Amino acid sequence: MNNLELITVETGEKMAELFAKVELYEIYMECFAQPPYEEVFTADEVQQLFAQYADKGRIILCLDSELDRCAGFLAAVPLVEDEEVARIAANHGLNVEDYWFLEEGGVGKAYRHRQIFSSMEQEMRTKIPVKGLLSRTKTINLASLKAHKKLGYRVVQGMTQLVKYQHLSGEMRQDERVFMKFWPK
């Protein structure tokens, strides 16, 4: 990955220190303002989310040391920390104590197709104290589904969630997200 390096963030304080410096908000919006998501967030909302993720779990950032900016991000928390997703998982037979949930993941456009998501996800596996990972994406996000499948994730049949979000147009919308799980053999 040449000029790219992975760093682990484990505290909200450290995330706050890095947030603006590595242009995380800009990369986040690049990932989620475009199709298939077309969502809008403020910088404060994203900063607060990532501070919470760091305090509750782990964040892996892929940094471009040459440009001193974020190339990708992956945030995970123990599944029990996300009450709504934990309830959905338990209703589908998953032992929530055995999983961490990948809350957020994305790679900037200029860095795609370079195995960055795979590298961040594999690094995350080394940083968490459980074996299982649960992830979620839009049912129409074929690139995300394909990337997860390559890493050994499988769709949990029937396990979905309706997610409400603010669309770029300003209106509130909702769509269905599908869950995938990874459990090593």
Automatic annotation (TrEMBL):
Top-level taxon: Bacteria
Protein name listed in UniProt: N-acetyltransferase domain-containing protein
InterPro entries: Acyl_CoA_acyltransferase
